[in-house]
Amino acid sequence: MPATAYVNGRYLPLAGARLPVEDRGTQFADAVYEVVAMFGGRPLDWEAHCWRLRRGLAALFIEGAPSDAALGRIAQTLWRRSRLADGLLYIQVSRGTARRDHGFPEGVRPNLVMTARPFDFRKRLAQQQGGVAVVSLPDQRWKRCDLKTTGLLGAVLAKAEARRLGAFEAMFHLEDGTVTEGASTNMWLVTPSGTLVTHPLSAKILPGVMRDTVLRLAREAQFAVAERPFTLDEARAAPELFLTSTTGPLLPVTRLDDAPVGTGKPGPAATRLATLLWAEIARQTGWTP
Question: What is the CATH number of the domain that holds 221?
């Protein structure tokens, strides 16, 4: 089936979806978005995605977006019309359409866009078994990386460089060597003693929905967990690295820049956590790989 879209009350093929030229999301990246994994037509971590969307809207002072319940009804209708089973639901809310001016316009309503696209999550199984490569790059993004806005140029350039170098993802680091996150993922390391480490929540990283889910599963499984900054040197010396994201959902990192991570194969911690995560997906949606 062709990709399907919803734009301000209309359901239509993605190829025919349109927004006005002066949409503030287009001209100023004055918009927030979410990407929700759909398994068998059921969303994963829906409430968490709605919470993060509301947080971003509040931080940008965007008012008038539909309620969570209304968004849920639109999403269900869109997915049903798309006739998809598994895939990705994209939600974007901009401040609205107004004459181009930096200041907030008055009397405008948000523009709401949703799209439904197929995505084969089963292809991640091979990547989990073999691992992926990551390259380290300076973090040159703006200082509110905790907001999931459409201002993604820094991440776009990093992804392009990673792919040019034959890697799956970029690992951002600050000038002092502190690792923040990936271009579209959260980064984790496993210490020699087996502790899972990931950057604490702050303006420097996105509060990843999958990050939160993996933290919960890890603690339930009695992993030692530390939410603290770690350095690029620590990452290079770690026996295991892995990344998490909605589309990942968890992938071992077996190569960082020009060197293998640990043994160069997925380690036991990432392997176990991936198994726990697939079980959580099955619990929420009934889907199994």
Answer: 3.20.10.10
